[in-house]
Amino acid sequence: MVRIKPFAAIRPPKEYAAEVASRPYDVLNSVEAKAEATERSLLHIIKPEIDFDPIADEHSEEVYQKAIENFKKWQAEGWLKQDDEEYYYVYAQTMEGRTQYGLAMCCHYEDYLSGAIKKHELTRPDKEEDRMIHVRNQQANIEPVFFTYPDDEEINAIVAEVIKAEPDYDFTAADGFGHTMWVIRDQQKNSRLTELFAAIPALYVADGHHRTAAAARVGQECQKKNPNHTGNEEYCFFLAVIFPASQLKIIDYNRVVKDLNGLTPEELLEKLAVAFEVECKGEEIYTPAALHNFALYMEGKWYSLTAKPGTYNDADPIGVLDVTVLSDLVLDKILDIKDLRTSKRIDFVGGIRGLGELKRRVDSGEMKAAFALYPVSMQQLIDIADTGNIMPPKTTWFEPKLRSGVVIHSFAE
Prior knowledge:
Elements: E1 4-5, E2 10-11, H1 17-20, H2 30-36, H3 43-46, H4 61-76, E3 81-82, E4 88-95, E5 98-108, H5 109-114, E6 117-118, H6 125-138, E7 140-141, E8 145-149, H7 153-162, E9 169-172, E10 178-184, H8 187-198, E11 203-207, H9 209-225, E12 237-244, E13 250-251, E14 253-257, H10 265-275, E15 276-282, E16 293-298, E17 301-307, H11 322-332, E18 346-350, H12 355-363, E19 369-372, H13 378-386, E20 397-398, E21 409-410
Parallel strand pairs: 6-11, 8-12
Antiparallel strand pairs: 1-5, 2-3, 4-5, 4-10, 5-12, 7-21, 8-11, 9-10, 13-20, 14-18, 14-19, 15-17, 16-17, 16-19
């Protein structure tokens, strides 16, 4: 059972939507954000360090205050306006001919604390604290979290009916991904969606664990300050866009390593052959073909690595993951990289950059070797969340990312 509600979104007028909406705060660094930000871009609100010259420390008080100033300015200038009524919103994303249809809504922080909103990753305290400061300062969820839920035929039918109408936004971002949004102004449909989601057993965090945790912490803070707290206050709710699981696709999340732990390439291949069937594929990029098959790139050549039976545990929801297999059999046992969260000898590359990015980083001399993995499935993610397990770091990469600024949720009094 989950508790959701419609909300009166703060959002750009149609003519500004494409310019205001931006990539999320955590997919580009400050230099990239400064170069990408146009006059009305939301990047000035979610990465306000770019408004300083030189770029300021993103965790400094002046930067946090700049975010507040910019949010107020965007509303004063009319670049962001609040809807007069509470609605749900259909938000569609199109990538490479595939479209996924989500519902923008507000979720209750108590569902996250109780486990009705299920997570599959741990959060880092520093990142959680940073997001919490932004939410607390703005009294708003500027950026949505990305959730999924088990498919429901009636919810799908309501969405299918809504999207027959002319969209409120329809634009293609610079990366080529399409973003389309419809306001559900039919309050009968909105009421029915609230009823339908009350019967959904659980929601799953796909992307945005830190923002979810931060929103829950702010909700708890507000509750403690309110002696008349009922649980229905606007601060109890935070912004999410929720997609049916069948429409989502997880792409690969790959690894590059700076050294071979003192081994020569030949010695590494010899050690890998104990647990893997190793096959040289030559200079052409090799893409992993199935679960437990990996690609290795080193010294200008690609190799296929297939884990031998008995080296992994398919009955274990964590043990079956290729990130676990690679971590246990290669990174830990051979390369002595024990903690993926803290080690400076490893980096992670989202599959959206392509395997050519792995080749580039190795060929440049920055990295010594690269490992490409077969993507995790949505069912694996749900199984792990349902059993209360936690995925290893940097396991899932969802694409396309939600555009920030399409809708904003305010809980300011």
